């Protein structure tokens, strides 16, 4: 996973990552490039080019002062190429201000008295400055409050507006409607809108020594709107394909952002988070009657949910947008319905609201991954099933998360989810490979010996050899398997229902693969007695006490006790060799995939090759040869040398097992996992 730029702090997170059903992702810097440009402006309904010099000057001074970014390079470099320290929004504002005139000159003409930085709750930045230049055409030696922030949150505090000609008029219903229409227009274009406002202050802030924040906020009214600015932050080129991959994997991507809801919806459409023509609001959702309720049972007075059903009757109404100020008014029944939507956008959210969203999804048994990079994201990152921090984010966010995306790329998270699913699948493949020979094919020799009275085909020592040596190499090789083509088209695993070993797997490994192995291995056992000792199978049945006599009396011949021991050890070696060859020639290749054919998942060449398997198979066969032919090991493990043909006869039988499993996979691909074939096999 580190090669895919996914840093995992805890290995248990990998398993959880493969079960993720909902991703709550931020917009800025995660889905978008975080390369912001202030592209459009509006002063009194006109562009800045058509505004008066006075109006432009006011806009310039507010943008220059109400911005925490700083140029790092000298002024001889072009504005677009100069390095800047600060967040992406302030960088865009700083470049815009520098394009109107020297930012340094404006800042040198003021003395900063107080500042409230931007935060996710307020969604605005305020600075209080005193002009040092009494010749300033607007701020002539006075103390002024400058504010930059979300327009819809600042509108209630605005009393006046600057017109394009520099005059000031009341911010009445007509003016508000005009400004609001401009904001909605830009928001529908996916642009982030900022309001630039100011207010001349009559108090001397420099004389105050306490409660500055309280005093500043108290005076934050009767503001004057100088203009609006629209910032463009283009989506990452790979984001749309990544979101579509999430949807094909039945993972819902919910955008949770601090931006205006319409801006969020517009960007969500660009990156395929929202594809429905109509996007419901909370009012629409409450009016609808066709949403399936989340099923739950009462347990100790609490609602215990099952997995949220996300299928809606009307496909055109699968998307919803919710603003942060609506979240506190949502009821439990509202959340039940919201969590049924397939496409969700949350706008103007604070850190507390983001945490609330995560908690509501988790309450309904969703496995939630949350992305974030700021200090304010840490509560949601901590509460999420999988907290995902960006490598370029704050240390607090990275500390609160369980995964860090080193390259700050949303697509890396999907690669991590794929790795999580693959990890679970490969462990399951290992188990599926080990059980037939490691338990089933070792159990039946004991049962046949007890109930049919035949010599014991596989002694205890050789059972241990199979479990601890010959089966180990191929099982390790299976952990290096590439993902099947269906891996990211299946629904996420439900940790409470989808177990590593379930009834379907037992049915498959015992009554399908295991049954064939038991029959073929016992066939080799009886074949050895018939060809090498001249004793047919029917004469070996029901011998019980006769096996302990000397000589051992059979219908066709008498065998000394010593020879019988040698024959039994050699026939047991044939049984052991048969199991090894059936495993490495058949079962290991059958276990590589659940749906795909071995021809689609070629182990020897191409993108799905796994050369560890043939290497491990050779290692297993070499071990079998050593235990059969080395005299010292013969004495320790009660084995005996056998003719080489007993190594080759099981090879086509192993291929027969593989072919039978290929027929099963063909039926599974043809009739689907819900068919009878899918229900009785893994």
Automatic annotation (TrEMBL):
Keyword list, A-Z: ATP-binding, Cell membrane, Membrane, Nucleotide-binding, Translocase, Transmembrane, Transmembrane helix
GO cellular component, one term: plasma membrane
SUPFAM superfamilies: Calcium ATPase, transmembrane domain M, HAD-like, Metal cation-transporting ATPase, ATP-binding domain N
Ranges annotated as spanning the membrane: 458-480, 501-531, 572-590, 611-630, 642-660
Matches recorded under PROSITE patterns: ATPASE_E1_E2
GO biological process terms, semicolon-separated: intracellular potassium ion homeostasis; intracellular sodium ion homeostasis; potassium ion import across plasma membrane; proton transmembrane transport; sodium ion export across plasma membrane
Protein name per UniProt: Calcium ATPase
Naturally occurring in which organism (per UniProt): Rhizoclosmatium globosum
